[in-house]
Amino acid sequence: MERRDFVSNIGLTLALVCTAGLAACSKGGSNDPGPTPPGGGNAKLTLNLGSDLTNVGDFRISNGVIIIRTGSGNTASAFTALSSTCTHQGCTVATFNNTSKLIECNAPCGHGSRYTTTGAVNTGPATAALTAYTIKVDGNVLTVS
Ligand code: FES
């Protein structure tokens, strides 16, 4: 193979590799995040208030979030959204107790920590509050981000 042919072949090979690499990273490839969910791309959770969390005390634990209806009406202030990851040892909190108004991290994973609806620690062993998230309500669509 002549030097000119060798250089030409290397150039063609590099062009093919670069083209393939760019195609793999372009929209529509395996890294495509898909359509943007309602409420934007940063949404951790989206609910339809026409059917979800219709009564005060209703709660949902999903996608790393515990969201609780704490009041009436479909406004952001009628809900609280917190991380569902207990700050003690990282278990997912188990439930919201509507009688005590506390979020409970129970056995078998949890060790009995309790949090208020603001995320503050009520009872240890946890010592740090749950992270609070932002809630937006647009009509019947509630979005946590
Ligand atoms: S992990 Fe929640 S109390 Fe220990």
Automatic annotation (TrEMBL):
Keywords: 2Fe-2S, Iron, Iron-sulfur, Metal-binding, Signal
A molecular function GO annotation: metal ion binding
Signal peptide: 1-23
The Rieske domain, residue ranges: 65-144
Protein name: Cytochrome b6-f complex iron-sulfur subunit
Origin species: Chitinophaga ginsengisegetis
